[in-house]
């Protein structure tokens, strides 16, 4: 999840702003999640490629927050994405290939980069609207 300092205060301020600015902020959250997803896909363990292909973004427009979700199921319904990320990583399991991480979502989450992306997107979108 992308988290911001003084989140509640930021949300109150955003709710006072024009609709275009709210849309720009949501677009910024989406852009930040896309960047995070691309980074996570680079370090997700690879066996058949399902882990990196099953990372999805989820945005709550009203709360202006987003997260990445990684679920990859075997033919028997076992969620091995969850198991590797949350259980295997804690048990000391290691990825088969160098440069990969069992905590692909956690190690690639960069709140500072995400905030910069949100801010940059807001500025770009609002300039296009004449602000």
From TrEMBL:
<dbReference type="Pfam" id="PF04883">
    <property type="entry name" value="HK97-gp10_like"/>
</dbReference>
<protein>
    <recommendedName>
        <fullName>HK97 gp10 family phage protein</fullName>
    </recommendedName>
</protein>
<dbReference type="InterPro" id="IPR010064">
    <property type="entry name" value="HK97-gp10_tail"/>
</dbReference>
């Amino acid at each position: 999840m992308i988290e911001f300092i003084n989140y509640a205060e930021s949300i109150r301020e955003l709710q006072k702003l024009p609709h275009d600015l709210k849309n720009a902020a949501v677009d910024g959250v989406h852009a930040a999640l896309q960047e995070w997803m691309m980074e996570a896909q680079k370090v997700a363990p690879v066996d058949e490629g399902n882990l990196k292909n099953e990372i999805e973004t989820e945005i709550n427009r009203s709360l202006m927050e987003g997260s990445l979700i990684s679920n990859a199921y075997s033919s028997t319904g076992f969620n091995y994405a969850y198991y590797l990320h949350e259980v295997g990583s804690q048990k000391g399991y290691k990825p088969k290939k160098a440069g990969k991480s069992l905590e692909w979502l956690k190690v690639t989450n960069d709140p500072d980069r995400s905030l910069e992306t949100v801010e940059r997107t807001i500025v770009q979108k609002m300039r296009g609207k004449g602000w």
